[in-house]
Design brief:
Blueprint lengths: L10 H11 L2 H8 L6 H11 L2 E2 L14 E3 L2 E3 L3 E3 L12 H12 L3 E3 L7 H15 L7 E5 L5 H14 L4 E4 L9 H13 L3 H7 L13 H5 L11 H8 L4 E6 L2 H9 L4 E4 L13 H11 L8 E5 L5 H9 L4 E4 L1 H33 L12 E2 L1 H5 L1
Parallel strand pairs: 4-11, 5-6, 6-7, 7-8, 8-9, 9-10, 10-11
Antiparallel strand pairs: 1-12, 2-3
Helix pairs in contact: 1-14, 4-5, 4-14, 7-8, 13-14
The structure holds ligand FNR.
Ligand FNR binds next to α2, β11 and α14.
C-alpha cells in the first residue's frame, strides 16, 4: 500500500505516502488550515512566485550548507518545526522524530503540546546518540505556549531549562486557536455519532478562553492558552529564562521592531502554517516587508522563517533574503507518519540534495554567499 521510501524524492511525495496510511482523523489534524485554506496556499505558492538570478561559471564543485542557530552548528540551514501531539501521527511520537533528527544531525524545536514529556524527549536524544555512538550536532529547542497560569509558566520554563533545551520559541500568533474547518467538521461528526448534536453548536463559539477546541492537538492546548499575553510579559519571562528567546509568529515590521526593543534574540516570521488568521501574510511576504521597512533587525536578531517551504530551493531563497535558518513542518510530519524515523532521515536528505543542487545552479558554494540580489521578487510584489 505504501511506496518504497526510495520513491520519495520530494516533500510532496511524503504527503502522498502518508495520506494513504494515516487514519483520517490524524490526516485532518496534520493538513487542516484556517478557514478557506488561503493562508496555507499562499505560503506554499509564494515561494514559487519569486525567481533566482543565477550566476554561471563560478566553480561550484564543493558546497557547504552549514549554519548555526545561537552558536549551535548544524549541517543544514533548516530545522524541524514544532508540531504538537505527534503521538497521533506515529506510535513512537516525538522520540521517533528525534531519533531521525539525531541520525542526520538536524536541529528540532519541540512543541509544548507534545505527547511525551519534555524530559522523555530530551532523553530520547541522548539515548539515540549513545546507541549510534555518534556525537550528533542535533540540539533541541522548546516551543512555548504561554499558559494562563503564571506559576505554571515559570515551572514549565524551569523544567525546560533543566532538561537542556537550548532556546525558547514563544508562540505569539495563538492567543486563541484559528478556525480550523476540517477539524470542526470532524468534531461535529463525532458529536453527531454519539447523539450530542445540540451540545456541539455552543462549543463552536470562537474567541476568548472558550475558543473551539479542535479534534486533536488543540484539545491539549486550548483552555491552557492565554489570550491575555502582552509585550510587558517579556520582562518576567526574561527573569526566569536566561537563554535565547525567539518570538514565533511575527507578521509585520512594527512587531519585528518591538521584538528587538524588548531584548529578544530572534524572531520567527510565520503564520503558523496557515492555521491561524485567515489571509494572514505568507511567510515570504513578511520576510520581504521586513527587508524593506526594517532592515536594521538583520544582523541584530536571528531571523527564522517557516511556512510552505517544500523544496531546498525555497530554503535557499529565504537565506538569500536574510533568514538565518528556516523551519519545515508538515513534510517532516508526513515523513514520520509514513516511514517513522527513517522518513525523517530521508526528508532531510531530500531537502539537502535540493539545496546543494540549487546552490550550485545559482553559482554559490557557501551560504555566506547567498545575497538578496540573487532573488527577483518583482513578480510577487507588482501583482
Ligand atoms: C503546527 N504548528 C505548531 N506551532 C506551534 O508553535 N506549536 C504547536 O504545537 C504547533 N503544532 C502544529 C501541529 C501541526 C500538525 C502543524 C502542521 C503545525 C505550526 C508549525 O510550528 C509551523 O509554524 C508550520 O507547520 C510551518 O508550516 P509548514 O512547513 O507546515 O507549511
Amino acid at each position: 500500500k505504501i511506496p518504497h521510501i526510495s520513491l520519495c524524492v520530494s516533500c510532496l511525495d511524503f504527503e502522498k505516502a502518508a495520506k494513504a496510511v494515516m487514519p483520517r482523523k490524524s490526516y485532518i489534524y496534520a493538513s487542516t488550515s484556517a478557514n478557506t485554506g488561503a493562508s496555507l496556499k499562499g505560503n506554499i505558492e509564494d515561494w514559487e512566485r519569486i525567481n533566482f538570478r543565477p550566476r554561471v561559471m563560478r566553480n561550484v564543485g564543493d558546497v557547504n550548507t552549514q549554519r548555526s542557530i545561537f552558536g549551535h552548528n548544524s549541517p543544514y540551514p533548516f530545522y524541524i518545526s514544532p508540531m504538537g501531539t505527534l503521538g497521533a501521527i506515529h506510535p513512537g511520537a516525538e522520540p521517533e522524530m528525534v531519533k531521525g533528527a539525531v541520525r542526520k544531525g538536524i536541529h528540532m524545536v519541540v512543541s509544548t503540546a507534545s505527547t511525551k514529556t519534555t524530559e522523555q524527549i530530551m532523553r530520547s536524544m541522548v539515548e539515540e546518540q549513545k546507541r549510534m555512538n555518534y556525537a550528533s550536532p542535533t540540539r533541541l529547542f522548546f516551543q512555548f505556549y504561554m499558559p494562563v497560569n503564571r506559576e505554571r509558566a515559570v515551572e514549565l520554563m524551569h523544567m525546560v531549562k533543566k532538561a537542556g533545551y537550548k532556546g525558547l520559541w514563544i508562540t505569539v500568533d495563538t492567543p486563541v486557536l484559528g478556525k480550523r474547518e476540517s477539524d470542526r467538521v470532524l468534531q461535529a461528526e463525532e458529536a453527531l455519532s454519539v447523539g450530542l448534536e445540540k451540545q456541539s453548536t455552543s462549543e463552536w463559539e470562537v474567541g476568548g478562553e472558550n475558543a473551539f477546541a479542535p479534534a486533536m492537538g488543540g484539545r491539549v492546548v486550548s483552555g491552557q492558552l492565554s489570550p491575555h499575553t502582552t509585550w510587558g510579559d517579556l520582562k518576567w519571562i526574561r527573569r526566569e529564562w536566561d537563554g535565547p528567546i525567539v518570538l514565533k509568529g511575527i507578521q509585520c515590521t512594527e512587531d519585528a521592531k518591538l521584538a528587538l526593543e524588548h531584548g529578544c534574540q530572534g524572531i520567527l516570521l510565520s503564520n503558523h502554517g496557515g492555521r491561524q488568521l485567515h489571509t494572514a501574510p505568507s511567510s515570504l511576504m513578511t520576510l520581504l516587508e521586513i527587508r524593506t521597512y526594517c532592515p536594521e533587525v538583520f544582523g541584530k536578531l536571528e531571523i527564522f522563517v517557516d511556512g510552505g517551504l517544500r523544496d531546498g530551493s525555497d530554503v535557499l531563497k529565504a537565506l538569500c533574503l536574510g533568514a538565518t535558518a528556516v523551519g519545515v513542518g508538515r513534510p517532516y510530519l508526513y515523513a514520520l507518519a509514513a516511514y517513522g524515523s527513517q522518513g525523517v532521515e530521508r526528508c532531510t536528505h531530500v531537502l539537502y540534495e535540493e539545496l546543494t543542487t540549487a546552490m550550485r545552479l545559482l553559482g554559490i558554494t557557501s551560504l555566506n554567499q547567498a545575497r538578496p540580489e540573487m532573488v527577483n521578487a518583482s513578480r510577487l510584489l507588482n501583482e
